[in-house]
Specification:
Strand content of chain A: under 5%
Structural class of chain B: mainly alpha
Number of helices of chain A: 11
Oligomer: heterodimer
Order of helices and strands of chain B: HHHHHHHHHHHHH
Largest sheet of chain A: none
Structural class of chain A: mainly alpha
Number of helices of chain B: 13
Radius of gyration of chain A: 23 Å
Radius of gyration of chain B: 24 Å
Shape of chain B: flat
Distance between the termini of chain A: 18 Å
Order of helices and strands of chain A: HHHHHHHHHHH
Strand content of chain B: under 5%
Distance between the termini of chain B: 31 Å
Shape of chain A: elongated
Largest interface: A-B, 66 and 74 residues
Helix content of chain A: 55-70%
Helix content of chain B: over 70%
Chain lengths: ~300, ~325
Amino acid sequence: MRKRYVEAPGRTDEASGLRFFRKSEAVDLFFVGYGLLIVVLVAVSYAAGVFRLLPHDPEAVNLDLMLAPPGTAGHLLGTDFMGRDLLARLILGIQAYFLPGLLAIAVATVPGLALGVLAGYGAGRADRVITWFSNLVDSFPRLVLILLVIAAFKPDIYFIMVVVGLTNVPATVSLVKVKIRFLREKNFIEAAEGLGLPRRTIVLKHILWHHCRASLIIRATLGMGEAILMETSLSYLGFGVQEPTPSWGNMVQSGANYFLQGNFWPSTVPALAILLAILGFHLLGDGLNNLLERKAVY
Amino acid sequence: MSLKGVKPVARVLAREVAVTALLLLGVSVVVFCILYLAPGDPFSLLLEGQMSAGAPGQDVREAMGAPNAWHARYLSWLAGMLRGNFGASIRTGLPVLEEISRVGLNTLLLTLGSMAVTLLVAVPIALYAAVRGVNRVSFPLTMAAYVVSSLPVFWFGYVVIYLFLHTFGLFPLAFGGSQGTNRLYLLLPIVVLGLGNGTLSEVIRHLREEMGRVLSEDYVRTARAKGASVWKHAFKEGFLIPVTEIVASKIPFILGGAVIVEQVFNWPGMGRMAWQAAQDRDFPVIMGIAVLAAVFVRAGNLLQRFVYIAVNPGASRETIGRRVA
């Protein structure tokens, strides 16, 4: 069933010691497994943060125990420059991006779907107008556009994430459009049309539900990675969540003052969390893409 | 239009330039709309503390020759911009274009340099992986690229500064200080942004997939059978086009990364200026930077289209909106 568009040369080289990884399904499954682990970890930690099941009060200052390294008794990941528990702040910091990230995904998906169907099914003119708008949105470096919006509106993180979502609309549009263009030629769509099914049913059920579901989930996981990157970058720049409320970005930023003195942990712990989380969402997206869309090279 | 056969290349190029101009016009409308919708227009910001209370009066506007209707405001802003007048910074009072051109070169150096670094790292890995497939060299390298692409660039910058401070004894915290800028220090932010802008793994993947696809095409197999140079045959479709495509589509990301890297390294560029302007609500500056950044992005895209058409003169209108995943 699994067919490759590309048979990369050298793939069957028996001299390679990576017998396990040569089967690209194995790599993809590993990616997806790691990504799912991260998703579950983030979701569970988020729930723990919501219900305040934290090892410590994340805002409790303890000046006797400042900049403690990881493994200090009672503070698994150490403390920051005010003696606040890093693990608790890390868990609570998920709230800074979790719901806003979901909002960004929703904003990217819903209009993206509608415009993608229009561009894919519509006449040449609709496609041209939508492509023009996509190119227009793609013309702005995202961070610069967001700085512009920040200067204009002094928005909160949800507003910013709506903008992030809007900048992701073109990607969804082109994904749906290409899918529809490809599927329209297929026999089963022609058959459905021949049988007189309403276009609504064809689009919603046969095209979107049966053939775009996987791609949209993949886009969504990548979107979550982007949302984490955006939120942490903005918090690092001082435009996102403000102290004392923790966010991974402002934790890195406040810890950075002590980094050059040799106190790595206060900024490295959240930085590693960012790294592992973004890596998880990216690998999940790529692994799913390879497994479900069957165009892997790994 | 009933053009038979392949369009003349000049005609396609003219079309591309026209599309770019139209897009830049759209960019200016978007930037203006964001400003227009903002609560408290720049006028009230300018007059803050100088007027007693309330909105600036109609008479002040008229006295300063500022139009009131939105279309008149837009047109006067656009006309000024086309003549190179981006207005004056609210914070410093200096002309925006002068301010930006003072630091723009630094940002251009940073972004172009880091693009070169990204390609220098990505291209060998991608080509090796495309030719040899998955093996014990290409797999770890590709994995490493994934990890590096997920690094938060602001933390990565501190790590590099720390390493240089302790292993080389360099104290890279001043740009153009009293004893002149250290050459090595100029390289640091470029390398950090080149590796950490989050596009490394995508560049590798795109180039590897395209090159791998082209290498299994019939015409390359024919070339190989004839004993002709495979590289020469695969170069245009398997290397030149994917590289220009991915670079053009990643310019916005690199510009965004520059905002952060300039912050980490105290690099006096457009990104830091944009950050400062966003904090001060310095509208003319941030608008000018947004427009210029969009010009930069569109110029990159136009260049990519030129390369594409030069390589494949039969490029039809179908390919005009082509996106890189």
